[in-house]
């Protein structure tokens, strides 16, 4: 058989290095560009999950749009194959600018416009098109460097591309986010992207460029790197300005932990607001209504040993510790930064009545689900003070399997109380929580505390300050043997917002509005994404 070499469009490249070295340099550029491309993708997913909520939906939107756009980019790149070197250089400069600035523009659109969904789709489409255009041009370039058969060239390119994607995927959570954060991490990635793409074309393929093309590429890359570097220098000032636009002028504490963003606003305990990942979790103006309704119905009975899942702010513990016959309170909080603030921040520690100073308190850092799997103690009361079930990361904490673990940790006459979201504005979510508890063998007693509580927003969307966002809270009280009675303990402390008759009326209102036929939520079939 005669092996006939197919002539390549444009002929062999005139290289300043040996063909084998040139081939390795092209593959190195593929590796770096692939790593940068995946960082852009993960950055969009992470920031969209934080700004918009529901990580599953945001990841699906970003990935599907980008893959579709990559196909479009590959088709468009066919027209550039005759000038592959300059085409690749310009595409990398554009990708570096668009990808590097994507996080900054998304955050700005949310902070000042209040909407980032359209920007998310636009960046996913633009970045996907530019990434999709890379491979056809790189295929042309590597065949001009080393007259390799098409199959071998494709194998080498995709090997470098996939390994680069692996490195980028690992670098994003373990290096870029902890060291630089979302904004600076994206800007740094764009700078690396521009430098790698520009260096490959301007050095290895410089003899293929006309004088005009060479100066065009130099100007484009210098401009892109200058813009990204300037943005990086101003990133801290931009972040502070954007944070003021979102949270107001009284931001006292802003922390980006390994788990979430934690922001405290307000000058004292009477004006304090606590935001976790942009969602208002505590408002000192009315948090007592929520925490009294959450804790005290569950304390109607034996309550010597109490377990609080979540609630690292110490406010649920404050209510529990008002009972002198409580012997121990264990708080299981995922983010140690929240418990640290609850101990040390003057306003927050005053609001929780210095609960962490009480010798009966024990704070444990850990995921509630994992912690319950290894727990051996039994508790009289379990208080689930957890993020809203509509947030994707929290759905496992509202599953039938989770309630099965809680049931195992309850004493025979113990009680569990769960906040299930706004029972009026999102009834299917609330009654899915109740159905999931029943599926785990618990006997439930739902109740609903009515009213409009301005500022305290527990849904999956960020707080906007509107006073009509929460039409009361829905709770479910449950026990392993029988449904607990709705009432207050005879030794209950004086409450500001809750009475026994009001609590019984809250149970009747909840039952009157029961949504029947809701299927339970499980780990393999979560059901809390219907009411978005």
Compressed to H and E, one letter per element, the order equals HHHHHHHEEEEHEHEHHEHEHEHEEH
Largest sheet report = 7 strands, mixed
End-to-end Cα distance, whole Å, is: 64 Å
Q: What's the structural domain tally?
A: 2
Low-confidence stretches: 1-11, 454-470
Q: Determine the fraction of residues in helical runs and give it as a percent range.
A: 40-55%
Radius of gyration: 28 Å
The residue-averaged pLDDT reads: 89
Relative strand content: 5-15%
Verbal overview:
With 532 residues, the chain is α/β, with parallel strands linked by helices. It folds into two domains: 19-240, Growth Hormone, Chain: A; 285-512, Vaccinia Virus protein VP39 (Rossmann fold, 3-Layer(aba) Sandwich), CATH 3.40.50.150. It contains 15 helices and eleven strands. The chain has helices spanning 19-52, 55-77, 84-113, 117-145, 150-204, 211-233, 235-247, 287-295, 315-320, 336-344, 346-351, 368-374, 400-409, 427-439, 500-512, and strands at residues 251-256, 261-265, 273-276, 279-283, 305-310, 328-333, 361-365, 379-385, 410-419, 443-452, 471-479. The strands form two sheets. It has a seven-stranded mixed sheet with strand order 7-6-5-8-9-11-10, with helices on both faces. Helix 1 (19-52) runs antiparallel to helix 4 (117-145) and helix 1 (19-52) packs across helix 5. It is elongated and about 90 Å long. The protein starts with 18 loop residues before the first helix and ends in a 20-residue tail after the last helix. Pathway: Amine and polyamine biosynthesis; spermidine biosynthesis; spermidine from putrescine: step 1/1. It is an enzyme of class 2 (transferase). InterPro entries: MFS_trans_sf, PABS, PABS_CS, SAM-dependent_MTases_sf, Spermi_synthase. Keywords: Cell membrane, Membrane, Polyamine biosynthesis, Spermidine biosynthesis, Transferase, Transmembrane, Transmembrane helix.
């Amino acid at each position: 058989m005669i092996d006939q070499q197919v002539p390549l469009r444009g002929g062999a490249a005139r290289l300043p290095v040996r063909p084998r070295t040139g081939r390795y340099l092209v593959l190195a550029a593929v590796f770096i560009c692939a790593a940068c491309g995946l960082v852009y993708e993960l950055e969009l997913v992470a920031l969209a999950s934080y700004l918009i909520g529901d990580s599953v939906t945001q990841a699906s939107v970003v990935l599907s749009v980008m893959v579709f756009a990559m196909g479009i980019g590959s088709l468009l790149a066919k027209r550039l194959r005759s000038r592959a070197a300059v085409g690749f250089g310009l595409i990398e400069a554009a990708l570096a600018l668009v990808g590097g600035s994507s996080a900054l523009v998304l955050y700005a659109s949310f902070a000042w416009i209040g909407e980032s969904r359209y920007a998310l789709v636009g960046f996913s489409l633009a970045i996907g098109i530019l990434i999709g255009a890379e491979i056809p041009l790189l295929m042309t370039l590597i065949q001009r460097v080393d007259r390799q058969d098409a199959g071998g060239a494709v194998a080498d390119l995709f090997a470098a591309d996939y390994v680069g994607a692996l490195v980028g995927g690992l670098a994003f959570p373990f290096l870029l986010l902890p060291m630089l954060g979302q904004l600076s991490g994206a800007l740094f990635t764009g700078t690396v992207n521009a430098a790698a793409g520009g260096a490959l074309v301007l050095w290895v393929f410089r003899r293929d460029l006309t004088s005009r093309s060479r100066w065009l590429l130099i100007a484009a890359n210098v401009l892109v790197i200058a813009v990204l570097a300037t943005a990086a220098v101003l990133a801290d000032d931009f972040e502070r300005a954007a944070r003021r636009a979102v949270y107001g002028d009284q931001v006292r504490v802003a922390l980006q932990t390994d788990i979430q963003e934690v922001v405290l606003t307000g000058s004292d305990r009477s004006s304090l607001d606590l935001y976790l990942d942009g969602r208002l979790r505590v408002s000192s103006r009315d948090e007592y209504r929520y925490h009294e309704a959450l804790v005290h119905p569950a304390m109607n009975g034996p309550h010597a040993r109490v377990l609080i899942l979540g609630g690292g702010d110490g406010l649920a513990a404050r209510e529990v510790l008002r009972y002198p016959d409580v012997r121990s309170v264990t708080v299981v909080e995922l983010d140690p930064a929240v418990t640290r603030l609850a101990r040390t921040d003057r306003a927050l520690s005053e609001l929780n009545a210095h609960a962490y100073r009480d010798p009966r308190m024990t704070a444990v850092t850990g995921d509630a689900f994992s912690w319950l799997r290894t727990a051996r103690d039994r508790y009289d009361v379990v208080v689930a003070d957890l993020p809203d079930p509509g947030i994707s990361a929290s759905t496992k904490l509202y599953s039938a399997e989770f309630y099965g673990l809680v049931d195992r940790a309850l004493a025979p006459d113990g009680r569990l109380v769960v906040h299930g979201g706004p029972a009026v504005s999102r009834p299917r979510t609330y009654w899915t929580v109740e159905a999931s508890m029943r599926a785990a063998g618990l006997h439930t007693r739902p109740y609903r505390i009515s009213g409009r509580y301005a500022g305290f927003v527990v849904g999956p969307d960020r707080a906007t300050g509107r006073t009509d966002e929460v039409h009361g809270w829905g709770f479910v009280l449950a026990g392993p043997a029988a449904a607990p009675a709705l009432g207050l303990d005879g030794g209950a402390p004086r409450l500001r917002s809750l009475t026994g008759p009001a609590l019984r009326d809250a149970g009747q209102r909840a039952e009157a509005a029961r949504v029947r036929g809701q299927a339970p939520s499980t780990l393999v079939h979560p059901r809390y994404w219907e009411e978005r």
